[in-house]
Amino acid sequence: MKIATAAYPLDVLSSWAHYEDKLAGWVATAAASGAELLVFPEYGAMELATLAGLDVAGNLEASLFAVSDRLADADATHQKLAAEYGVHIVAASGPAVTDAAPRPVNRARLITPSGQIGVQDKQIMTRFEREVWGVVGGEPLRIFETALGKISILICYDSEFPLLGRALADCDIIAVPSVTEALAGYWRVRIGSMARALENQCVTAMSSCVGPADWSDALGDSYGAGGIFCPPDVGFPSTGVLAAAEINVPGWTFAEVDIAQISRVRADGVVLNRNHWEDQFGRDATAINVPLM
């Protein structure tokens, strides 16, 4: 199958029709290139706050709830497009207010052509999210069994934690929606995505917000690119990179992925990182300090 990951610029939306037309254009472009799984970025849904006015969009607290109020309608639009084009879509994440959490969570949704919606919340908050914005960790990690294979989502910072990746060891593809305000952040998430592909012997698909969003105190300028990564093993590129776009160039990044090859590498790769994970146990105590002075 073909995966498409977005380098997605955020806009000031003039109307709901503006949003629908924008999203429809992005999905149509990816589908025309044969993509079956489309991955939008972390906090890409924040542009929905502009529908409530720039004063709301520019207010950290108010913007959280303005976006949450629009997520159900956004999901309905994604459902229509997923059905029309026969694609699976990881919708851009956004703050969601739930009864289960005292504060909004950062929520992505996987939407299938049949209209089903799988929900994945971010697990570990960045400093900005926890210290300034008050966004909290949400519901547990999930693996979604789909017609394309087993798909999971690690939202941005979550991709930098190996135990979260290990919880998804049974999945074929991990989507990594991201937004980062500097090149260092982009590379942290990219390195994390590549590490999770190595450890799990799976494919990771990283998307990014790109460009300015001066109307938002939460986002500002974003630096990133689409990228699709794999284990550097038999049948995959020796670099571990199936595709990687130039930084901050809006558009889709595409790669063909053979799910059967993931199974083959897991069973008979040059190395078997996924199978040998438990060999660390008992060897992962604090290292012995050996003075050599």
From TrEMBL:
Q: Name one Pfam family in it.
A: CN_hydrolase
Domain of life of the organism encoding this protein: Bacteria
Where does the secretion signal sit in this chain?
none
Q: Where is the CN hydrolase domain?
A: 1-259
| Keyword terms, alphabetized | Hydrolase
Note whether Hydrolase occurs among the keywords.
yes
CDD domains recorded:
nitrilase_Rim1_like (cd07574)
Query: Which InterPro entries does the record match to this protein?
Result: Aliph_Amidase/BUP, C-N_Hydrolase, C-N_Hydrolase_sf
Family matches, as PANTHER family: CARBON-NITROGEN FAMILY, PUTATIVE (AFU_ORTHOLOGUE AFUA_5G02350)-RELATED, NITRILASE C965.09-RELATED
What protein name is recorded for this chain? Predicted amidohydrolase
